[in-house]
C-alpha cells in the first residue's frame, strides 16, 4: 500500500471549467497504514470578485465560507497551479468526488493533471449511501465527516475551505483505510 494524496477544491460553482473557476486547492497525504495524515499543499488564487459575478461569489460564500474580500489575499494562479502540480504529480490521488474535482476542473488547463498522476476512485463510494447523500441544505463532506469522525480529529470545527475539506477527507480516508475499506 502506498500513501494516498487527497485533493479538494473550492470553486465558483459545480459546472466545471470554463464556466466556473477554482478559487482554492488543498492536498493532504494519508499515510499508507491509515494512522494519520499531513497537509502537503494549500493555495488560494487571487481573484477579482468583480470578474466572478454574483452567482460565483454567492457559491463561494455559501458553500465554502469564502467572502469576496478574501479573494484578494491569494497568490497568482500560476503559483497555485505549480504548487498543486509539485504536490501531486507522480502520486496516487483521490477526492470525495473525483468526477467533480478532477473531471470538471483539474484535468483542464491550467492544472493539466491528466496523465501526470494515478487517479483512484472517489473514496465516497466506500461510504454508506446515507453519508454520500446528505439531507437538503447539508454539504456532503462536512456531513459525512460529522458522522464518521464526530470528535473532529482534523480540528476543523465548522470550517469549509478547501483546506478544511481536504483535512476532513483525509480523516475519513484514515478511518476507511484502518477498517480495510480503502
Describe this structure in words.
This protein has 6 helices and 5 strands; from the N terminus they run βββααβαβααα. The chain has a 5-stranded mixed sheet with strand order 3-2-1-4-5, sandwiched between helices. The mean pLDDT is about 95. Strand 2 and strand 3 form a beta hairpin. It is an alpha/beta fold. The relative contact order is 0.21.
Q: What is the C-alpha radius of gyration, as a whole number of Å?
A: 15 Å
Please count the helical segments: 6
Structural class: alpha/beta
Distance N to C terminus: 10 Å
Overall outline: globular
Strand order of the largest sheet: 3-2-1-4-5
Oligomeric nature of the chains:
single chain
- Profile the largest sheet: 5 strands, mixed
Q: How many individual β-strands?
A: 5
Mean of the pLDDT scores?
94
What series of H and E elements makes up the topology? Answer: EEEHHEHEHHH
Q: Report the β-strand fraction as a percent range.
A: 15-25%
Helix-residue proportion: 25-40%
List the uncertain runs: none
